[in-house]
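Private note to self, pasted from the team thread so I don't lose it. Backbone tokens:
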């Protein structure tokens, strides 16, 4: 096992533990915990068996396994950024609505 494999596996195990703790504290829902745990476990699998990344690359029509992992990671990051952006927009709208309601309530007092 190479040093990078060792450190990546440690990181992925740490991430799985953090997901478990967040779920236990009811900070994340079951589906999200399952999704993130699956992602981190898939990372461990790819680190332990790099041939899976090569197979994935061939399946996707990409030259190297690392390229396939990077492309998928970038796509995943864009999706997560989109989800965060949508959630922030929703929070801003709710906050604006609450501030307006509060201002109207204070004005009527």
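Design output:
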């Amino acid at each position: 096992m190479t040093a990078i494999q060792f450190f990546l596996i440690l990181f992925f195990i740490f991430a799985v533990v953090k997901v478990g703790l967040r779920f236990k504290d009811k900070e994340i829902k079951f589906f999200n915990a399952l999704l993130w745990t699956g992602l981190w476990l898939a990372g461990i699998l790819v680190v332990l068996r790099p041939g899976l990344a090569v197979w994935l690359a061939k399946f996707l029509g990409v030259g190297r396994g690392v390229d396939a992992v990077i492309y998928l990671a970038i796509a995943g990051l864009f999706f997560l950024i989109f989800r965060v952006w949508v959630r922030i927009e929703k929070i801003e709208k709710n906050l604006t609505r609450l501030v307006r309601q509060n201002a109207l309530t204070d004005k009527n007092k």
